[in-house]
Amino acid sequence: MFDRYEAGERAILVHIDFREEGEREDLVELEMLVSSAGVQSVATVVGSRTSPHPKYFVGSGKADEIAEHVKLFEADVVIFNHALSPAQERNIEKLCQCRVLDRTTLILDIFAQRARTHEGKLQVELAQLRHLSTRLIRGWTHLERQKGGIGLRGPGETQLETDRRLLRDRIKAILRRLEKVAKQREQGRRARQRNEVPTISLVGYTNAGKSTLFNRLTHAEVYAADQLFATLDPTLRRIKLDDVGNAVLADTVGFIRHLPHDLVAAFKATLEETREADILLHVVDCADERSHENIAEVQSVLTEIDADEVPQLVVMNKIDSVEGAEPRVVYDDEGMPTHVYLSAMDGRGIELLFQALTQRLASTMVHKHLALPPSAGKFRSTLYQLDCVEHEQFDDAGGWQLEVRLAKVEWQRLLKQEGDLIETFIAS
């Protein structure tokens, strides 16, 4: 059996251009992924094909070129900017005599480095095990032999079958633990919904500046860096908006082209925060020349997790990197804000974002002036329990003049409870 080398620090990158637009990857993005993984790129092999080669993914001549680069640069690992089959991965390893990683495995490795919370680590392990389970057949042919030695001879379970069973058992155990975490998250979401606290979820392409914006809005100290997938674990913080009150802001994992399906499935619980949000802040790096492609990719993932129907406010971030760009708000035909141009790094335009969020969420609020008689003390107490009284003063008859602001849903509930009586309290 051929020794599988451990991934080292020096890497040869392989990028192949395909004619099919849907199969194309981005070389710059691969370099950023490799940098984020803490690996040094020593050379890049590029080529073009109409379709992948069944044995090496690249042609045999290009495969020999990769092997020569490995010897020349004394590389420890070859990283492909594409998804390889187990057999292709195995064949290139034999040829190059070093470890071979594909794009999916590289992303999984970065996720494993970044996960901090118990839930994040479980989700990454689940994704890794699901990915590994597809590679036990052709990638590890030695495992098909039955175990030998004293007490192990004769008919029985092969090592491959043992490993498959152990993988299945571990995946089931992780799923059970993640189910408990998901229930806890659901309870938190239900509590927020009962209290009518709006949820704002940050989404966007990886490295668009979501965590920097999150820190700017909440004065938190969430880890933010100029690298892909700096944030894995979802973070929730409370913010206060004029005319709306308290709201919850959620920072989530960034998206990327051809995000492995195992990862999307593993992070389903995390992405629930996105699907259940009242509004999405779609953060875009406006200094990136591929911003339109990145927006389309984020929309694709949102569709995959059934979050494409949630209202969005697009935040065009990093105007500090665009010459002549100034903070501004773009409105639709109905006067509602759709885009906010700002810089999360230097803080320009943050006030405009708060105003735009208030305007978008205030449409779900009711603003009323009420005149309560002295006999309506119980109803006044109810309003204070809802924390919706903005101003109060006594009138000459011993009653109260109140200015209230609350969610439409809560107002409808009050109308249902109090019936026609509440209509008599509304001041003209």
Automatic annotation (TrEMBL):
Cofactor(s) the protein needs: Mg(2+)
Gene Ontology molecular function: GTP binding; GTPase activity; guanosine tetraphosphate binding; metal ion binding; ribosome binding
Nucleotide-binding listed as a keyword: yes
Binding site for GTP: 204-211, 229-233, 251-254, 317-320
Keywords in alphabetical order: Cytoplasm, GTP-binding, Magnesium, Metal-binding, Nucleotide-binding
Cellular component annotations (GO), alphabetically ordered: cytoplasm
The keyword Transmembrane appears for this protein: no
Binding-site list for Mg(2+): 211, 231
Main localization (coarse): cytoplasm
Subcellular localization, as worded in the UniProt entry: Cytoplasm
Sequence ranges assigned to domain Hflx-type G in this UniProt record: 198-365
Domain of life: Bacteria
Record text on subunit structure and interactions: Monomer. Associates with the 50S ribosomal subunit.
Protein family: Belongs to the TRAFAC class OBG-HflX-like GTPase superfamily. HflX GTPase family.
Function: GTPase that associates with the 50S ribosomal subunit and may have a role during protein synthesis or ribosome biogenesis.
Protein name: GTPase HflX
Primary gene name: hflX
